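Async update (no meeting this week)

Hi team, since we skipped the sync, here's where things stand on the single-chain job. The sequence we agreed to prioritize is pasted below, unchanged from the tracker. I ran it this morning and attached the output directly underneath so nobody has to dig for it. Comments welcome in thread, and please keep replies under the output.
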Amino acid sequence: MLLCSLAGHAQVNILTANGNNDRTNSNLQETRLSPATVNTSAFGKLGTFSVDGQVYAQPLVVSGLAVSGGTHNAVFVSTMHNSVYAFDADAMSPVSLLWQVNLGASVPAPLLFGQYGDIAFEVGILSTGVIDLQRGVLYVVADVLEGGVPVFYLHALDLATGAERLNGPVALTASVPGTGGGALTDGTVPFDSLQHIQRPGLLLANGSVYVSFGSHGDQAPYHGWMLRYDASDLSHQLAIYMSTPNGNGGAFWQSGRGPAADREGNLYAITGNGDFDGMQNFGESMVKVSAQGSATLDSFTPSNWKPMSDNDFDLSAGPALITGTHTVIGADKGGNLYVVNGDAMSQPDGASIIPASVGSIFNLAVWSRGRSALVYTQGEREPVKCFQITGNSANPVALSTAVNSVPYGRIGMTISANGSRERSGILWESTGDYNAGTPGTLHAYDASNLANELWNSDMNPSRDQMPPVTKFVSPTVANGKVYVPSNSNVVTVYGLSTDR
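Output:
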């Protein structure tokens, strides 16, 4: 058996970006970390995992993994140097590396971005992969330099060894009928690996792996692409979805968030700046896509989509689903929070929109509670806020607000809680200027009262200081530990002093 139960408190797996296929940025099975246990005397830095490149992918966790005749709680870290590491989650001094593989030469960032410095140095594994426990593999996408051009490869790596499985790797290619940007004279639009990056987290659903793409710096021509592959055999491409076949734009970037999937297998994604006609082109929209990954079932597009697109006010955060429902949550660069009925997205009363911030929102976290939820948003130059959602409606008055403002909105955030227990929740937020190379800050707020900051890494900087933050990437919280990616080639691990 790949997994075995461990003695003591229940162990949790974090297998995909944003914690689950609802993309809530939450772990509601956390029993060790709570407002009662997280403070400067009991909680702090445990150590770091050093790697060979910047970490834009969220660390993933498998508990009770059988490796080389032993059993380990494992943390999987992917880097922009195209390496994947498996570490023992419980061995910090010294660190125990279970295995490491490199998936090919990374792509120099200037080849993609020119003078636009969205990502420094190199592009390799940018998105968060996804783990399939049944098959015992980690799926990741690596951007590889071959013959002077980038080529995307989808891999299925054995969890215990890092070896290639399931007929991987496969080069990702695609083409759809259309007249949009980059179209050929034969009436097709091919996928151009030079014009796209693979930022959204991978999705494992419906026996398939879904891989989404957007632009780098809105450099035309580009589109939003979603490719579907057989999870049991990567050589089988099952479907292609493209957001603007007869237009341009509509990137799937989602600030790194993966597409969401409901319990019926329907997919939800958000597109950025681009063309919209409601028939073939779905830029600046929330789209509901069939499980087959080939058809648009429904969509929501703001009425002011055109000036939003023209002025780079993308739909920038989301999607997230309230667990067990079809309520879709997102936000935009104008500071608006969207709550959309996934069963009536295009209807006049299908969306509730509230002004949650005066600054851009790039990330959010959702504490699901039946058909209601608490939603946490971080606007630029504002304190983090909590809003109540009931059904498909949002209360425009914040339930609670932190004391201090955060200047930069490209942050990470995760809710940890013990189910829906009111006083068990913590909002973890990693903040800082990702461009400056200066230390970031990890915050822990009482999720029931954001004015109560329980702890942050600057309270005892000699012990707990955080390295520079990676934009968009949320901390991973599992089994009493918090794993924070950094653009300085480390993952920092925080936890209770009893784990030192």
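Quick observations from my side:
The two ends are 30 Å apart (CA to CA).
The longest helix spans residues 305-310.
Reply here if anything looks off.
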